[in-house]
Amino acid sequence: MNERDREHSPPQRKKRVALFVTCLADLFRPSVAFASIKLLEQAGCEVTVPLRQTCCGQPAYNSGNYEDAVLQAQEVIQLLAGADYVVVPSGSCAGMISHHYPTLLDGEWRDRALELAAKTFELTVFLKDIAHIRPKRKKSPAKLPSVAYHDGCAGLRELQIKSQPRDLLRELSGVEVCELQQSEVCCGFGGTFCAKMPAISGKMVDDKLKDAVATGARILAGGDLGCLLNIAGRAERLGEDIEVRHIAELLSMQFDGPAIGKGK
Amino acid sequence: MEQHSDTFLDNASAALGNTAQAERRDVIAAFAPLIRSAAVEGFTEFDALRQHVKRVRQHSLDHLEYYLGQFEHEAVHNGNHVHFARDGDELNSLVLDICQQHDARHVAKGKSMVTEETGLNDFLQRAGLEVMETDLGEYIIQQAGETPSHIVAPALHKSAGEIRELFQAKHKLGDRELPETVDLVSEARQVLREHFLKAEVGIIGANALIAENGYSMLVTNEGNGDLCANLPRVLIVCTTIDRVLPLAQDATAMLRLLVRSATGQSQTCYTSFYSGPRRESDVDGPIETHFVLLDNKRSEILDSDYREMLECIRCGACLNHCPIYSAVGGHAYGWVYTGPMGSILTPLLTSLEQSHALPNACTSCGRCAEVCPADIPLPDLLRDLRHEENSKKLSAPRWRLGLKLHSWLTRHPPLYHALTSIVIPVLHWFGRKHGNFERLPLAAGWTSQRNFPAPEGKTFMQQYKAQQKRREQGKHER
Q1: What angle do CA B173, B174, B179 make, to 5 degrees?
Q2: Among B365, B423, B462, which would you mutate to test the A interface (most chain A Cβ atoms within 10 Å of its Cβ)?
Q3: pLDDT single digits (tens) B186-212
């Protein structure tokens, strides 16, 4: 950060945010993490990325391996303890930390989990409700093509995320969301579910994709890479001409690169 | 009932392959949540009542022995016989004994999932009795030799056309064609009337047992429960011990949640309370009445971490809102109870060994818990069953070990980052042209249905660390 930026920032101390990148963004879609950093800085935050982070433990937890999930949760709690806020560009990982860690752990670790839970937010919730991000003054936003939004289940039901991504797309990117008919139905990802029960998952993602295509939107956005990789993969298999992108890419207006599952 | 839960995946594939049934399930899946939400949204006390009934149910289960004792006392006082059955075999034998004491040849039966659980129909038929299901849906599947696909609407999987063909095959129709749905209903009604009149014993279930007055409560939309209860000489109410509630007002409070959640009605057509045998001043009613109260592992569940499952009121809302139930239908679950509640009850009432696929038929989407009128954390209980599956090493070893290795790696960040910074760029390089893979080693489950999106490039951590390093160098050079 240079001196000129500092002059323009509000007088109060900047919010110190630790970004929990999520393993899927780290491995498959780094642009989601870079876009998240950009958005958080635009919202006036000081962003750090703890370097020892890996995975929140959902795969083990949801497969019933609580013992290993506990160890992973303890690692994450230690890693993120020092931050004012923890922001996660995924409803399900944010839900894992804020909703499931406290029930998974006992005693002193449970107290620490509750402390972490209280300061952990999903990206769109943090930008909208906590940091009150505003559009950049100088540049008028480039016009986005039509966008449909997929509500990830954990975000929707564990964290009550519904209006925030829609509001942000309107305010920051100037686009109204096209609603899916069955917006509250799961896309069939479900972590290991999609590989353990592929035929059922395939039927579910097919329904979701059809619903998205029927909106007529050019882009399907969402806040969870798991869902998006699932839907994009099915779209590629069927040759459907819809771009699948994480909402952070759209809000930061960084979407000149290929969409998820698309070649250069 | 014979169990086929161990072949869930094959059952599911077969169900997905039946396109006509799959299309009907899609229509129902879109429709059922709408009628439920219209009923619940029009009833402002729903959430408050849900919390109230939950407290009542918890209280009743905390003092189950006391309230069962009170119920028994009051019911006997009303002239009923009360029996307790430890398991399904005991219930079946008790019911057969009662039938034989009255030289019964014909049984009219309705509204009992519990007797599906114990396989009562087969048992009585093997003993030479004629058993007729009288609920329209149950009658249809009995004629078809099938099992219920939904706990509230047992013949949900059948189309009007299939029912017409069934009646053509099973009934003496002459030249009648039964062109309209209403004709099918009239036909069933005619046939069933004869059975009601001929039956010596009626068997029904119960939605609740009321401790304070010894009554049982039953809701129906067809009135067949009342005909089973009042026309035959003997009535047997079969239900489970966990149905007991302290007060009549508790039962009616529960009813207001149950019916809205089940069918989107504010009330069913019939809500009946059964007190006991005909009194001297009564013009009709059975001359002898029995309650058979089944345990069948409920006491074990009461003392386990799955206790909340006993608060289930059998409305079927979790089925109607489950995308997996909607995709594969009830028969895939391979036993009496289906959908999310069935995926918990089946392992608890039978064994996890033969049904551990069921708790895996869940994406933890949480829609079931959101609509559950009993406020049961269904996805959490399903996950707990997966924990048990994992601990007992029932799951496939490659999954168990694979996830264990993954977890171990993530707890060794330097190694994890070193490995992913090799694998991910390689994967990116191979997939750079199309942006995805049609096939990939170790990802057959995924790629059987969808392409595998290729990584965008290097990992974020690689890129971020390089960026930080450049910044540091920049500072030094300045």
Answers
A1: 60
A2: B365
A3: 999 999 999 999 999 999 999 999 999
A186–B363 C-beta distance less than 8 A: yes
Distance CA B381, CA B374 (A): 14
Tell me how close the Cα of A159 comes to any Cα of chain B, in angstroms.
12
In angstroms, what CA-CA distances link A108 with A112, B283, B411? 6, 69, 20
d(C-alpha B155, C-alpha B165), whole Å: 14
* Tokens 């009445």 sit on residue: B289
pLDDT beyond 90 at B1? no
Nearest CA distance, B145 vs chain A (angstrom): 26
Question: E strands within B21-176?
Answer: 81-85, 106-110, 130-133
> In the predicted model, what is the mean pLDDT of chain B?
96
Q: What is the mean pLDDT of residues B24-28?
A: 93
Q: Chains A and B: how many Cβ contacts under 8 Å?
A: 220
In which residue are the tokens 């002059």 written?
A7
CB-nearest to B406 from A59, A66, A185 is A59
Tokens 């049934």 belong to B21
Which amino acid appears at position B304 of this protein? S
Contact A252, A35 (CB under 8 A): yes
Q: Which residues pair with A149 in a beta bridge?
A: A221
> What is the per-residue pLDDT across A66-98, written as a single tens digit (0 to 9) for each?
999 999 999 999 999 999 999 999 999 999 999
Q: Are A123 and A164 in contact (CB under 8 A)?
A: no
For chain B, give every residue range classified as CATH 3.40.50.10420.
Answer: 43-296
Strand partners, B217: B208, B273
Out of B9, B360, B407, whose CB is closest to A68?
B407
Whether the CB-CB separation of B317 and B373 falls below 8 Å is answered with: yes
* Beta pairing, strands B234-240 & B288-294: parallel
Contacts of B281 (CB under 8 A, 6+ apart): none
* Mean pLDDT, chain A, integer: 93
CB B38 within 8 A of CB B264: yes
Return the exposure string of B424-456: e unless at least 16 CB atoms fall within 10 Å of the residue's CB, then b. Answer: beebbeebeebbbbeebeeeebbbebbbbbbbb
Distance from CA of A48 to the nearest CA of B (A): 11
Query: Domains, chain A, ranges and CATH?
Result: 3-129 (3.40.50), 138-251 (3.40.50)
Cβ partners under 8 Å of residue B445, min gap 6 = A194, A195, A196, A198
pLDDT of residue A151: 98
Query: Would the pLDDT of A6 be above 50?
Result: no
Cα–Cα nearest to B237, from B212, B274, B270, B265: B274
Please state the ipTM of this predicted complex.
0.94
Half-sphere exposure of B315 (CA within 13 A, CB side): 32
Q: What is the pLDDT of residues A218-263, one digit of tens each?
A: 999 999 999 999 999 999 999 999 999 999 999 998 888 999 999 8
Cα B371 from Cα B340, distance rounded (Å): 12
Count each helix (H run) and each strand (E run) in chain A, helices first.
15, 8
B57 and B374 in contact (C-beta within 8 Å)? yes
Cβ–Cβ < 8 Å for B259, B35: no
Query: A66 and B387 in contact by Cβ < 8 A?
Result: yes
Q: Does domain B43-296 have CATH number 3.40.50.10420?
A: yes
Backbone angles phi, psi at B32, to 5 degrees: -60, -45
Task: Give dist(CA B247, CA B98) in Å, integer.
Answer: 29
Does residue A7 carry a pLDDT above 60?
A: no
